[in-house]
Design a protein that fits this description.
Blueprint: H1 3-6, H2 18-21, H3 23-53, H4 61-65, H5 68-94, H6 114-117, H7 136-141, H8 144-174, H9 182-186, H10 189-215
Helix pairs in contact: 5-8, 5-10
Length: 238
């Protein structure tokens, strides 16, 4: 790497290929599809076992992918993940944890100044175009990450409720019980049990990461402080 390359704002040095430059997204995206496929295989086996016990015919793999049972199992996990990131993105604006790289430095709580955020007159030549504006576009872009996560959470939670009531009613019909409406399902124990069991695990994971990263290290990871950093060092990533 030449001295000129080292100064590039993206840190790529101008030599990194597409696969390496996007390896984090590609690997996790590929792992997501693989795990989703494995979930579908396992879910179909469990679903067919329930149908067999009820004296019904098992379904094929394609048919299972179109069932509400598969949809609700997927969406109930998605909504909890997007809730986690929505709360984390917004929470870390004002909430702090001494010694954690997941926290901002203790003297920088809040939305920070336009100079610190490189907004308006302080935007740079390579800043996103809307960051240099001084109207609604800047206000929207300055909150776009959190708003997008909130939208994904609400959409996936809504999808969970729609798929959930269909799956729930499917079970009720097999037990010769009357189906219930969507509104009734929203206040049912099944809906809230599905939601809350995921929310508590996500919140626990965030809290554990914030605290454990104060004292533990992972060399080379931006989620960890440098190995030799003091425990009290806050907002410094490796």
């Amino acid at each position: 790497m030449t001295p000129g390359d080292a100064g590039r704002p993206d840190g790529s040095g101008g030599r990194t290929g597409f696969w390496r430059a996007n390896s984090l997204t590609l690997v996790f995206g590929g792992a997501f599809l693989l795990v989703l496929a494995c979930q579908a295989v396992a879910g179909r086996a469990e679903f067919n076992e329930q149908l067999t016990v009820a004296g019904l015919q098992p379904v094929g793999f394609g048919a299972y992918l179109a069932t509400s049972d598969f949809a609700v199992d997927v969406t109930e996990n998605w909504q909890s993940e997007f809730l986690q990131f929505f709360l984390y993105v917004y929470g870390t604006v004002h909430l702090l944890q001494r010694g954690s790289p997941e926290s901002k430095p203790l003297d920088r709580a809040g939305t920070e100044s336009e100079r610190e955020q490189r907004m308006g007159d302080h935007a740079r030549a390579d800043s996103p175009r809307w960051a240099s504006t001084k109207d609604w576009r800047q206000a929207l872009y300055a909150r776009s990450l959190g708003l997008t996560m909130a939208a994904f959470f609400l959409l996936s939670w809504f999808a969970q409720s729609v798929a959930g009531v269909a799956a729930y009613n499917g079970v009720r019909l097999r037990q010769l019980q009357d189906p219930i409406g969507w509104g009734a399902y929203l206040v049912s124990a099944d809906f809230w049990n599905r939601s809350l069991q995921n929310w508590q695990s996500e919140l626990l994971a965030v809290a554990a990461m914030a605290v454990l990263s104060v004292y533990l290290r992972q060399r080379g990871s931006p989620e960890s402080k440098p190995v030799g950093s003091a425990h009290a060092t806050t907002g410094i990533e490796g």
